What we know:
A: mainly beta, Immunoglobulin-like, 6-stranded mixed beta sheet, 5-stranded antiparallel beta sheet, B: mainly beta, 7-stranded mixed beta sheet, 4-stranded antiparallel beta sheet
Amino acid sequence: EDQVTQSPEALRLQEGESSSLNCSYTVSGLRGLFWYRQDPGKGPEFLFTLYSAGEEKEKERLKATLTKKESFLHITAPKPEDSATYLCAVQPQGAQKLVFGQGTRLTINP
Amino acid sequence: DTAVSQTPKYLVTQMGNDKSIKCEQNLGHDTMYWYKQDSKKFLKIMFSYNNKELIINETVPNRFSPKSPDKAHLNLHINSLELGDSAVYFCASRIGTGSSPLHFGNGTRLTVT
């Protein structure tokens, strides 16, 4: 069964304190791995798609990386506005759906 | 504004009632989805349509019936609502049936009392 597990469940950092969020997955062939950001009361907002092991993508203070078993979302020198829930999802080969993890709730204190 | 829009944003109703949620996208996408997000923030696929054709029908009670009148609209009708149906329902869309990103609406919070 396709499965996505994110850790930690919640993470509290001080402004400027860099860290990483983990997304471990088991899937019968990976078509794509997606990172989303979700703010309270809003829908998930797309951040990155990664397709193959070794791939990396960057956007502002965020950098996503991918191996054959997991993905990391690195956040460098975060600001309070980076506070949100970060969701990871995989699309299995031959499937049209995304399978989501339970998310990491990130809080950045000023 | 180009977007995925859902109505209503909030829906409070009693057990046993029937209700509908509407979704429209003006992104020119041809594949649309319904996801359910439970109290633990876990997003689970329910249905998907591509050009008005049902392509995903997960294990969902048959009280839930999606309808896609055209590729820009996907509605969700729920009969005989139960307490366990309380959740946030998200509509999403994407281009084609490949691996392009899903674009989500802002959700409909359904509360069944």
